[in-house]
Amino acid sequence: MAADPRLRPAGRNFRQPRRVRKRLVALFSAVALVIAAIVGVAAVRSVPFSGTAVPVPAAIQETPVAVAPASLQDRIDAVLAEDTGYRIGLALADVSGDAALAFGDMDEFAAASTAKIITAAAYYHLVETGKADLNGPLGDYDAAFQLEAMVNQSNNDSWLLLMDAVGYPELTGYAASIGVTYDPEENRLAPADMALVLKKLYAGDLLDEDHTAQLLGYMQETNNEDLIPAGSQAGVDVFHKYGELGGALHDAAVLSYRGSAFVLVIYTENPEGMELPGQSEVIRRLTGIVEESLFPPVQPGALGR
User: Fold this and answer.
1) Which residues contact 33 (CB under 8 A, 6 or more apart)?
2) Gap between the Cα atoms of 70 and 74, Å rounded
3) What is the pLDDT of residues 99-140, one digit of tens each?
4) H or E stretch including 264?
5) I need a surface site. Which of 9, 26, 37, 65 has the fewest CB within 10 A?
6) Residues 108, 87: Cα–Cα separation, whole Å
7) How many CA atoms lie within 13 A of 98 on its CB side?
8) Degrees (nearest 5) of the Cα angle 86, 92, 94?
9) How many C-beta neighbours within 10 Å does residue 90 have?
10) Angle at CA 31, nearest 5°, toward 234 and 111?
């Protein structure tokens, strides 16, 4: 559904939080996933999303390795070691596994519009429990319109309407129910938090089949494809939600390629409150580095005739 031109143009930044409270969080355990494409063994896999059905994850890997492959670690560390003047945090997780990799600054960031996925999932949950209706009026349109506008066009008016419809305490409670600490008043998340949300969404652990497919569909061909999608290699399906707020520039995505699906979250933030040159480019660079490790190109003749 295309955004109605009468709706205020999509703003990429959510309002400043009404109260700021810096919470100390424990560093996310850098427990790595087994990456089949790197170690050359049959590892955790999921069926790529087709737009019509929820991906079906395979069994969870029981014994993940404890460190990132050296080639991936070294290349990411080289980027993180550059004197950029802004924070960078990266989280990587296999949709089918229970392990994840964490790089750089894993403390909380201003989540900006990436948190709209939590609001969307919470509203769909209300629909599935009979407490809301996608066809019911919400603002000048129906709830289905507002969900698409919020995710696909990153519209902030739609976000406010949907958060009010869910309720702020209920949003916090919903996030807690899926394993994430989130206060919509502060709107702060660590990269690992966002990775967990996307991992559960793509695996079908949050919503039913139809709503999972609909939400993932809104996360393609958005009004900003210049971050992870622009850094992604040909043939990779990208389902993502970007976010911008002052000095924060983020992207959070599911990457699906040849039967494997991984979550990649890259948060960048200039503490001075202004976006710096290079933040978008570093997101694209890190995307390329990760994909080269996760999805090595098929060698000519490897598939036979």
Assistant:
1) 44, 61, 64, 65, 92, 93, 94, 97, 99, 100, 101
2) 6
3) 789 999 999 999 999 999 999 999 999 999 999 999 999 999
4) strand 260-269
5) 26
6) 11
7) 5
8) 170
9) 27
10) 65
Whose tokens are 């009979």? That residue is 130
pLDDT in tens, 24-81: 333 333 333 333 333 332 333 333 333 333 333 332 232 233 356 778 999 999 999 9
Angle between the N-to-C axes of helices 209-218 and 143-152, in degrees from 0 to 180, rounded to the nearest 10: 50
Strand partners, 262: 94, 255
CB atoms within 10 A of CB 178: 18
Q: Which two tokens stand for residue 189?
A: 């998340």
Largest CA distance in the chain: 62
- 21 CB burial (10 A radius; 0-12, 13-18, 19+): exposed
At 54 the three-state DSSP class reads: coil
Coil, strand or helix at 10: coil
Encoded amino acid at 248, one letter:
A
pLDDT at 112: 98
Tokens of 47: 């069926």
CB 26 within 8 A of CB 108: no
pLDDT in tens, 81-99: 998 899 999 999 999 877 7
pTM of full prediction above 0.70:
yes
With a CB cutoff of 8 Å and minimum separation 6, the contacts of 74 are none
Give residue 23's pLDDT.
Answer: 35
Check pLDDT > 70 for residue 218. yes
